[in-house]
Specification:
Elements lengths: L1 H9 L1 H10 L3 H15 L6 E4 L6 H10 L3 H10 L5 H12 L1 H11 L3 H19 L5 H7 L5 H9 L8 H13 L3 H16 L2 E4 L10 H9 L4 E4 L2 H11 L2 H13 L4 H6 L5 H10 L21 H28 L14 E2 L4 E4 L2 E4 L18 H15 L2 H13 E2 L1 E4 L2 E4 L14 E2 L5 E2 L1 H14 L7 H16 L13 H6 L12 H5 L3 H10 L8 E4 L13 E2 L4 E3 L9 H4 L4 E6 L2 E7 L5 H7 L5 E8 L10 H21 L10 H12 L7
Parallel strand pairs: 1-2, 2-3, 3-7, 9-12, 12-14
Antiparallel strand pairs: 1-15, 4-5, 5-6, 8-9, 10-11, 13-14, 15-16, 16-17
Helix pairs in contact: 3-28, 5-6, 5-8, 6-7, 8-10, 8-12, 14-15, 14-22, 15-18, 17-18, 21-22
Length: about 675
C-alpha cells in the first residue's frame, strides 16, 4: 500500500491533468473496461512493401487486393456458394467498383436484382474484414453518407428471422432511391481500407517507374502508414533542398529509364532548357552509351526521341560529375576523391588512369569539359543548373511530398518486435556496428548513427538550422546517396563514370559493405537487434534495397528467419533480373506470410477480364497462439494507460483528487459515446 501511495504522490500533477479527461469514477472505470476489451481483440494486419520505384499501378492494385487477402476471404466466405467466375467478378467489384459498375450497367438486363445480390455479398465481406476491430474503429472508416446504413447492415444479419425484413428494406431503399452505385463504391473502399490495418513502406518510392508522385498522393490520403527512407527517396529530398548533385542525379536517372512523367507531369519540372542545351552541344554525338535502358519507358518512344533523350542524358551526366566534384572537395572527411575522374582522363590518348592503371575509354567526346580545368562549369551550364535548381527548390508539390516523407518517415522504425530499415547498418569485420564520422568530426555507430543521420536530414528543411549546419546537411544528401559508409548505400563506390565510359567491366564492380556479406549469420542479426534495443522473443530485421534473385533460387528469408529481405523487384527494369515483380510481407494475428507477386498486366485487364496479380504465399513464421492487441506495441501502451487510470481511480476513492459533481445529462452523453449510439472517444 505504501508503494501505491508513493506512486500517487509522485504522479499527482499528471493525475490532475488526467482527471480533466476522466472527471468521475464512472468515467475512469468505463475507459478501463473499454481498453481492457480492446486488448483482447486480434492483432491488426500489417503489410510491408519495399522498393516501389514509381510502379504506381502495381502498388495501387496490391493495396486494393490487400496482397491477395481479399480474394482469400472471398473464397473462405462463399466457398462453393459461388462459382469461380462469380467470385472473380466480386473481387473485381471490390478492387475497382467505379469501373466495374460501368461495365455491369452496360450489359446487365436485371440491374436491380444484380444490385441486391452484390450488396448482400459486399456486406458479408465487409462484416468479415471488420470483425477484428471495435465498432468505434470501424465507424471511423465509414463514409459520412452511408455510415449509419453500413453500420446497421454489419451488425444485423439477413438470416436472423426477426431482422430479415429490416435488412432487406434497407437494401431495397438504397436501390430505389438511386444510391446503389454510391453505396457499392463506398462499401468497397471500406473493405479495402479494413483489409490493411497498417502499411509500412520500406523505402525507394522514387525513380525508374513513371508514377512516384501518384504513389505519394495515395500515401498522403492513406489511413495508416509509415515509411523508412530509401536512397532514392533521400536523393529527391536532396534535390528539393537544393543539392545540385542530387538534382542532376534525379534528372539523369529519369532520362536513363526514359521516365519523364514524374518530373514533367508530376512536378512540372521544365526540361526544355536541358533539351536545347543538349541538342546544341551534342549535335554530332551519337551518345551510344547513354541510350535509355529497355524494360521501361524507353520501349514506347521513337528513334528521334530516343536520340534526344540520350543527348540530354549525357549532358546532365557531365554536369553531375562537375557539381559532385565541388561538394566532394568541400568534404575531404568523406574520402571520396577517388570519384573525381574527369581530371584523370587523357583526352588526346582517350584513356583514364585509375589507381595507377590506364583504361581505354569507350568514347571521349566532352565538348563542355576544359582539360585544363575539367570541373569548371561553362556559362551555359551554370545558367542551366540555376534553372533546374529553381525548378526543384521552388516546387510546391515536391515540397508537400517531402513533408509527407518527413512527417510519416524516418531512417528506421521499431514496431512489434521488428526492426525496419531500407538498406544497411554499416558493420566492422567482426559484425559489430561500424563507427562513421559525421558533422564536426564526431563518430557514431548503430542506432546512434541512424538517429544522428535522421536529424541531419531533417535539419536541411528546418528554418532555424544554423547556416553552416544547413549547408552540411544539404551536402550530406550526396553522401547518403553514394557514400561508402552511408546507411542507405554501403558500397565501395558508385561506378557511374565507369559504366558509361570505360570498356573494362571490372572497373564497374561495386563492392558491397560488410552488412550484406554478414547478414546471413544469425549471430550478426542478433547483435544488430540488440544494438537497437529490440527485445521481443520473435524479433526480426526487415529491409529491402538489394533485389532478391528469386529466379536463381535466392531465398528472401535469411539468418534462420531473423532477416527478411522484401525487395523482389516491383520495378519493370528488375523483372528479368529477379524473375518476379515484388514481395509483400504480411503480418497478421497468426504470424508472417510472404506474398510473391508475378508482373501485373494492367488495370484495364483487371477490370475487363477480372485478372489479378498472380501471387504465391509462403508461410514464414506462425504464432503458437493467435496474437491479440495485448501482444503488440499498441497493447503495451494501452496497458500503461490502464495502469494510470487505475491510479486515478485510487486517487478518487481515497480522497487525493475530488471527482466532478455528478451530472445526469453529462453522464448520459458519455454513456452514448461508449455504447456507440453516436460519435466515439476511441
Amino acid at each position: 500500500m505504501n508503494t501505491v501511495l508513493k506512486d500517487i504522490e509522485d504522479d499527482m500533477r499528471y493525475l490532475q491533468l488526467l482527471s480533466q479527461s476522466f472527471p468521475t469514477i464512472a468515467d475512469a472505470s468505463t475507459e478501463i473496461i473499454n481498453l481492457q476489451a480492446i486488448l483482447n481483440l486480434p492483432k491488426g494486419t500489417e503489410h510491408f512493401l519495399a522498393d516501389l520505384h514509381g510502379e504506381y499501378k502495381s502498388f495501387q492494385h496490391v493495396l486494393k487486393n490487400a496482397s491477395g487477402n481479399i480474394k482469400r476471404k472471398v473464397n473462405e466466405i462463399f466457398g462453393n456458394e459461388l462459382r469461380e467466375a462469380e467470385k472473380k467478378e466480386l473481387c473485381t467489384l471490390i478492387y475497382y467498383p467505379e469501373e466495374k459498375l460501368e461495365l455491369v450497367k452496360a450489359g446487365e438486363a436485371e440491374l436491380d436484382d444484380w444490385y441486391h445480390v452484390a450488396i448482400h455479398q459486399l456486406v458479408r465481406v465487409c462484416r468479415d474484414v471488420s470483425s477484428k476491430y471495435t465498432r468505434s474503429k470501424v465507424r471511423k472508416s465509414l463514409p459520412d453518407d452511408f455510415s449509419y446504413i453500413i453500420e446497421e447492415l454489419l451488425h444485423e444479419r439477413a438470416d436472423d428471422a426477426d431482422k430479415a425484413a429490416y435488412v432487406n428494406v434497407i437494401i431495397d431503399t438504397v436501390i430505389t432511391t438511386g444510391r446503389a452505385d454510391d453505396f457499392i463504391i463506398a462499401i468497397s473502399h471500406v473493405i479495402q481500407r479494413l483489409a490493411i490495418d497498417m502499411l509500412h513502406v520500406l523505402g525507394d518510392v522514387y525513380d525508374r517507374g513513371p508514377g512516384a508522385h501518384l504513389i505519394m498522393d495515395t500515401l498522403g490520403a492513406y489511413h495508416n502508414w509509415d515509411m523508412q527512407w530509401g536512397n532514392h527517396d533521400v536523393l529527391w529530398m536532396g534535390a528539393c533542398a537544393g543539392n545540385e548533385a542530387c538534382i542532376c542525379n534525379v534528372v539523369r536517372l529519369s532520362l536513363r529509364y526514359a521516365n519523364l512523367a514524374t518530373l514533367e507531369e508530376g512536378y512540372g519540372v521544365n526540361l526544355v532548357p536541358l533539351a536545347t542545351f543538349a541538342t546544341e552541344r551534342y549535335a554530332d554525338d551519337p551518345c551510344t552509351e547513354f541510350m535509355p535502358s529497355t524494360g521501361g519507358g524507353a520501349d514506347d518512344i521513337d528513334d528521334k526521341t530516343r536520340l534526344l533523350t540520350a543527348r540530354m542524358h549525357k549532358a546532365i551526366t557531365i554536369l553531375q560529375f562537375k557539381v559532385e566534384a565541388a561538394i566532394i572537395s568541400r568534404h575531404p572527411e568523406w574520402c571520396m576523391d577517388s570519384r573525381l575522374l574527369l581530371d584523370k582522363v587523357d583526352y588526346d590518348r582517350k584513356v583514364c588512369t585509375i589507381d595507377g592503371r590506364e583504361y581505354g575509354m569507350k568514347s571521349c567526346r566532352f565538348p563542355t569539359v576544359d582539360p585544363a580545368d575539367p570541373y569548371r562549369l561553362t556559362a551555359e551550364e551554370r545558367t542551366l543548373m540555376d534553372r533546374l535548381r529553381h525548378s526543384f527548390t521552388a516546387n510546391e508539390k515536391l515540397h508537400r511530398h517531402i513533408r509527407l516523407m518527413l512527417g510519416h518517415g524516418s531512417l528506421y522504425t521499431i514496431t512489434n518486435g521488428n526492426l525496419l530499415f531500407h538498406a544497411s547498418v554499416p558493420l566492422d569485420a567482426d559484425g559489430s556496428p561500424k563507427a562513421v564520422t559525421l558533422y564536426g568530426g564526431h563518430k557514431y555507430s548503430g542506432r546512434e548513427l541512424m538517429d544522428r543521420v535522421d536529424r541531419v536530414v531533417r535539419s536541411a528543411f528546418q528554418a532555424d538550422t544554423d547556416w553552416q549546419e544547413r549547408l552540411f546537411a544539404t551536402d550530406y544528401f550526396l553522401y547518403l546517396w553514394c557514400g561508402p559508409d552511408s546507411v542507405l548505400f554501403d558500397k565501395s563506390k558508385m561506378a557511374t563514370f565507369e559504366r558509361y565510359f570505360l570498356a573494362d567491366k571490372d572497373t564497374c564492380k561495386e563492392e558491397k559493405g560488410l552488412y550484406f556479406t554478414l547478414r546471413d549469420d544469425p549471430r550478426v542479426c542478433d547483435r544488430i537487434l540488440d544494438a537497437f534495443g529490440v527485445t521481443a522473443p520473435n524479433r526480426h530485421i526487415i529491409n529491402g534495397h538489394v533485389p532478391v534473385h528469386a529466379a536463381s533460387g535466392e531465398n528472401p528469408i535469411k539468418a534462420q528467419g531473423r532477416l527478411m529481405v522484401i525487395d523482389g523487384g516491383f520495378s519493370q527494369a528488375y523483372h528479368k533480373e529477379t524473375g518476379i515483380a515484388g514481395y509483400t510481407l504480411v503480418y497478421h494475428s497468426r504470424g508472417f506470410q510472404l506474398v510473391q507477386h508475378e508482373p501485373f498486366t494492367s488495370t484495364e485487364d483487371a477490370i475487363l477480364r477480372g485478372s489479378d496479380i498472380k501471387s504465391t504465399t509462403q508461410i514464414v513464421e506462425m504464432s503458437a497462439h493467435r496474437m491479440l492487441v495485448a501482444d503488440t506495441d499498441t497493447g503495451r501502451e494501452l496497458k500503461r494507460q490502464i495502469a494510470d487510470l487505475e491510479k486515478l481511480l485510487y486517487a478518487y476513492r481515497h480522497g487525493f483528487i475530488k471527482p466532478a459533481t455528478f451530472n445526469k445529462a453529462w453522464a448520459e452523453e458519455r454513456r452514448q459515446r461508449y455504447m456507440g449510439d453516436k460519435g466515439s472517444k476511441k
